[in-house]
Amino acid sequence: MCANNVDELVRESDNIVEMLRGNATAFTLGEHFPAIPNEITNWIEEQRAIIESVALGDLSHHMTEIHAEGPDAFQFFKDFSVNSFENFEIGDGKHIVLCNARGHLIGDGPLLRLGEEEFWGVPWGAENWLEYQLETGDYDATASFDPPTAKKDGGDPESFIIQVQGPDAYATLSKITDADIKDIGFYKFREITLAGKQVRAFGHGMSTQPGFEFHGPFEYADEVKSAILEAGEEFGIRHLGSKAYNSQSVRLGWIGAGPPPVYDGEEMEGFRKWLGTDRREASFSIEGSYDSEDITDYYMTPVEYGFGGLVDFDHDYVGKEALREQLDNQQREFVSLLWDDDDMVDVYASLYGDGTPNKYFELPRSRWGNSAFDSVTKDGSLVGLSRRRSYEPDIRGIASLAVVDLEYSEPGTEVTVHWGEGSDSINPRVEDHEPTEVSATVAPVPYTEDLRKA
User: Please, what CATH class does the domain formed by 8-26+259-299+331-443 belong to?
Assistant: First the structure.
């Protein structure tokens, strides 16, 4: 039987977790960033440029953009966002967070208010949810969705999204604009002239370094990129490949939406039936040492994953009461884990000599799959989950983002990360290997100072 939608996939599956763990259609970075090579020069030098000089990241190809207009556009986003919409003025951006009725995270990302009735954003993970709600709801608003390049049969994006970040970002940009870009605050935006082109300058970035994001018609993306790269040449600017770009989120402290909380529950049935098998929810994958038969154990909650400060109760929205319960009964804290250098050397040493090696740790981070889940223990007991992980140049080692029980969330606490899935793993892209343990130390999120708001 061939499923026509996600609901049929769920009904045909004996075990949802196994379906996602064995998902052979899981994307790789090459598929997710079809127009961006893994490396433009060398991923190590590209990583270093982010924190030592200046780096350019091209985000034009891997996200779905939403452009919504109409008298009810403001109310539409308000009905599905946990954030307060008070003082959300034209020229402001807001990092919106969206949940289902049980308070499980569906997606998050920036939303910009372009006009009284006009909004633009990239709600990572929630694009299908918003499209469904707008299509089935009673809103006097319309929206266009510009999908990733990989979904467009070779067509170009409607607009470009370019980030410029690093200690020398201001010096680089000042050479190609007369605008006082330092005056644009964090999550604020305005129209400026950059390299002779009208662009939207947005105070935002995916690193802890200061910088900006620029939006404009894709037809002159190459001109803008070339001008930025030429201006930054004296500072050692690097154009980021997909490897270096994807490693930034660990340093910043952002995981991104995990397994879509759609695979169970009657309240999500309509959405499941609406979702075709070509949608993200049908091809999602999970990997890692943590193994539970209950799919809800893999769902994310805003409070656990660092969005508690964005939750507001000044209006009605989907998931409000569930989030109130989460805040009143928080069990885990969002942290960074710094992996032990000697233990990681042993993981790589196992590739040589006799015996079954440990699971390969691809540098700077794995290029396939959507969500990692590695068990974190203390004295043999499960105390949390290690999630997105990466090599980070400023610490010359491996860091990951994790949720751990409150009792073990104090920086400096020693825990153990369980690395590997074993010979019986059903993951089609995981080799036969011997599981091992890696010591780790709890650190804050982010583990380094965030200079974007300075």
Answer: mainly beta
